[in-house]
């Protein structure tokens, strides 16, 4: 999706924002733009391309000014072109806006504003916000501060916007104003303190008759407003997470008064000032460098040994037990997620039934609403959401539908404990995978599965069931063993790089990995790939198989082994090139190529068989000249429905 950064303080805003946008590039990379306020005027530069390309072309990082807004776009409304890139500027050139989300009634607003004489320069829904702000009865800069309620004009204006948004507006005088509704927006605070009474500031004409009532006002040396804490974590670990319906204003106050900026936050529904809690962010979020790796995706594939053990062993025990109790008490459990997280949800279905005899349904988050009747239990249903980012709109929508339908509990596992999903859940657990920047999920997927093993085992113990032995301690060694074969996998990728379609066949829980492998090949290498239940090959897909076909068979030595071999023979008889993923030496003669996996506890195979397939998709991407970190048309955090 789009990402937003805004800065106001004592540093040059532009270079800081360019860096922040690069860090958030996983969210969107169709086009990039920056506006700064300098000498009481706005400077705006924007264009199509990724951050480094647009920066090299337009010298974004040399723009002057200590206040600014920046944006990377992932197009939803309007083509990918320079005009549609953000920021969008009001007709008088004094207000620039960056927006993430979707203003659903933008056609109506555009019509109304055009009739009032506003001229639109883009096709985007976002531009209406700049014009609406311009048409406020008091100009943004004129709004006085220090009151206990927000200017009514702003609250009225926000009530006109339908849909989802987080936006930040910058005035030519360097004031920042913004709001959040169903899209993330976080304010990073440089050296914060609370205002004590506020009467010491000449500009703070508190004429509401209540001298002591303005300690809601935060004072800072500098502030950062962003879609993700990754944007500013190197400058501050203190932040405010705006909630839906909150609006903020950041202004400079008198030079004599240090700190120099005030941040006021209001509820947009009634305009009342809000005192927000300042959250301390864990510094590990700052670990977002590629290190020795060519791409984030490769780095994250290599981090999986540690990610698996951290997810399994570092689960917060108090939360874990709350979750276990909630799962045992529920009369119906529905697990949901999108993309790879949906695949983890599907895996949970297998693990819960095999390890702890819990029955549950797994459903794609965007489908939950259409099947809600199936999932409402007899009074104590639970929705269990799986999400790396915790910001995926389809998942959050499912959570809200579950709330509206009186689900007893919302539980989740997330990689971002500060995310909206974590905040909206009754119980959440972190997978502790550290930041995942590559658009395609890799370490977050295996970490989700590792945590699901742990949850299943704890449920089993609580129910008095003897859990199976799962040797997670050896995960780092096992992952390492597979990573050692990277050169061979790269050669394999070279030999099959021109494939038009790849079929991945598997049975039982391995089918989930077949789906995940197909998704990786599509996302990273733009190859059509399908995960197929091996037994279904003969019921249709076999018609597609010929000597040009590539078939990957997931075939570890468990109860699925011989049935998958039968399907392999069916494909081989039609001339397909067969890649076997197996720990069995005896079957290697059947395959044209073998990706060997370690012999592990049966339930652990999925965790390891996915790793050579991730590497294959990564190397296929390189061979086909695709950028594995930023696949075309998709975003890591999809915050629109
Ligand atoms: C996007 C990404 C996928 C990801 C999915 C769910 O579609 O491209 O890689 O699996 O979102 O993301 P989440 O953050 O909810 O796990």
Topology of this protein?
Blueprint (H helix, E strand, L loop, with lengths): L2 E6 L4 H11 L7 E8 L2 E8 L2 H8 L8 E7 L14 E2 L5 E9 L2 H10 L11 H8 L17 H8 L3 E9 L4 E6 L4 E5 L2 E2 L23 E3 L1 E5 L11 E4 L4 E7 L8 E7 L11 E2 L15 H7 L1 H10 L3 H13 L2 E6 L1 H18 L4 E4 L7 H4 L5 E7 L5 H12 L4 E6 L5 H5 L2 E4 L12 H20 L12 H9 L2 H11 L4 E6 L3 H16 L2 E6 L16 E5 L6 H13 L3 E6 L10 E4 L8 H19 L18
The structure holds 6-O-phosphono-alpha-D-glucopyranose.
Number of helices: 18
What is the tally of beta strands? 26
What would CATH call the class of the largest domain? Alpha Beta
Q: What is the arithmetic mean of pLDDT?
A: 89
What is the SS-derived class? Answer: alpha/beta
Provide the CATH architecture of the largest domain: 4-Layer Sandwich
Proportion of beta-strand residues: 15-25%
Unreliable spans: 197-214
Radius of gyration: 26 Å
- The fourth-level CATH homologous superfamily of the largest domain is Aminohydrolase, N-terminal nucleophile (Ntn) domain
Q: Order of strands across the biggest sheet?
A: 3-2-4-1-12-9-13-16
Percent of residues in helical segments?
A: 25-40%
What characteristic shape results from the CA principal axes? globular
| Hetero compounds | 6-O-phosphono-alpha-D-glucopyranose
In the residues, how many domains can be counted? 3
Describe the model.
The chain is of the alpha/beta class and 641 residues long. The chain has 3 domains: 3-285, Glutamine Phosphoribosylpyrophosphate, subunit 1, domain 1, CATH 3.60.20; 288-468, Glucose-6-phosphate isomerase like protein, domain 1 (Rossmann fold), CATH 3.40.50.10490; 474-630, Rossmann fold (3-Layer(aba) Sandwich). The protein has an 8-stranded antiparallel β-sheet, covered by helices on one side. Strands 5-6-7-8-14-15-11-10 form an 8-stranded antiparallel β-sheet, covered by helices on one side. It is globular, with a radius of gyration of 26 Å. Mean pLDDT is 89; it is low at 197-214. The structure holds 6-O-phosphono-alpha-D-glucopyranose. Residues 338-341, 387-389, 392, 395, 439-441, 634, 636-638 line the site of 6-O-phosphono-alpha-D-glucopyranose.
């Amino acid at each position: 999706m789009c990402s937003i950064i805004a800065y106001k303080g004592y540093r040059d805003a532009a270079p800081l924002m360019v860096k922040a946008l690069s860090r958030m590039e996983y969210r969107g990379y169709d086009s990039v733009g920056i506006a700064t306020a300098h000498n009481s005027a706005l400077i705006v530069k924007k264009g199509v391309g990724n951050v480094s390309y647009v920066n090299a072309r337009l010298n974004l990082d040399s723009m002057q000014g200590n206040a600014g807004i920046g944006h990377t776009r992932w197009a939803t409304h309007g083509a990918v072109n320079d005009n549609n890139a953000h920021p969008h500027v009001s007709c008088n050139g004094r207000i620039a806006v960056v927006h993430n989300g979707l203003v659903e009634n933008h056609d109506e607003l555009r019509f109304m504003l055009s009739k009032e004489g506003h001229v639109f320069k883009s096709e985007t829904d976002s531009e209406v916000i700049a014009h609406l702000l311009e048409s406020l009865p008091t100009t943004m800069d004129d709004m006085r501060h220090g009151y206990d309620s927000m200017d009514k004009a702003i609250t009225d204006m926000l009530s006109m916007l339908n849909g989802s948004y987080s936006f930040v507006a910058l005035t030519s005088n360097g004031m920042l104003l913004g709001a959040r509704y169903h899209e993330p927006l976080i304010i990073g605070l440089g050296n914060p303190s609370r205002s004590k009474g506020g009467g010491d500031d000449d500009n703070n004409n508190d004429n509401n008759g209540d001298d002591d009532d303005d300690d809601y006002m935060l004072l800072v040396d500098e502030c950062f407003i962003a879609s993700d804490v990754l944007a500013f974590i190197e400058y501050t670990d203190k932040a405010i997470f705006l909630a839906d319906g909150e609006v903020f204003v950041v202004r400079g106050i008198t030079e004599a008064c240090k700190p120099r900026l005030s941040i006021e936050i209001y509820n947009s529904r009634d305009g009342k000032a809000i005192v927000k809690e300042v959250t301390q962010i864990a510094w590990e979020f700052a670990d977002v460098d590629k290190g020795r790796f060519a791409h984030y995706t490769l780095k994250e594939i290599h981090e999986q040994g540690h990610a698996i053990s951290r997810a399994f062993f570092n689960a917060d025990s108090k939360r874990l037990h709350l979750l276990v109790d909630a799962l045992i008490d529920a009369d119906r459990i529905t697990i949901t997620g999108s993309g790879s997280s949906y695949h983890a949800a599907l895996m949970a279905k297998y693990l819960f039934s095999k390890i702890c005899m819990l029955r549950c349904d797994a459903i794609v988050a965007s489908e939950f609403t259409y099947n809600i009747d199936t999932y409402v239990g007899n009074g104590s249903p639970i929705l269990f959401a799986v999400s790396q980012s915790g910001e995926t709109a389809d998942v959050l929508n499912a959570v809200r539908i579950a709330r509206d339908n009186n689900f007893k509990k919302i539980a989740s596992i997330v990689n971002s404990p500060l995310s909206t999903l974590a905040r909206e859940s009754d119980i959440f657990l972190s997978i502790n995978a550290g930041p995942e920047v590559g658009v395609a999920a890799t370490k977050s997927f295996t970490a989700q599965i590792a945590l699901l093993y742990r949850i299943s085992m704890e449920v089993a113990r609580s129910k008095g069931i003897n859990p199976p032995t799962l040797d997670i301690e050896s995960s780092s060694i096992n992952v390492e063993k597979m990573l050692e074969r990277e050169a061979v996998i790269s050669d394999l990728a070279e030999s099959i790089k021109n494939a038009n379609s790849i079929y991945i066949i598997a049975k039982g829980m391995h089918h989930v990995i077949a789906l995940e492998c197909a998704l990786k090949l599509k996302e990273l290498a733009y190859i059509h790939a399908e995960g197929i239940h091996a037994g279904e090959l003969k019921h249709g897909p076999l018609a597609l198989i010929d000597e040009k076909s590539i078939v990957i068979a997931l075939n570890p030595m468990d109860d699925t082994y011989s049935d998958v071999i039968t399907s392999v023979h069916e494909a081989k008889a039609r001339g397909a090139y067969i890649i076997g993923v197996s720990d069995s030496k005896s079957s290697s003669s059947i395959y044209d190529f073998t990706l060997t996996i370690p012999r592990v506890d049966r339930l652990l195979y999925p965790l390891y068989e996915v790793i050579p397939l991730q590497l294959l998709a990564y190397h296929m991407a390189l061979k086909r000249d695709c950028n594995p970190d930023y696949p075309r048309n998709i975003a890591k955090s999809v915050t629109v429905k």
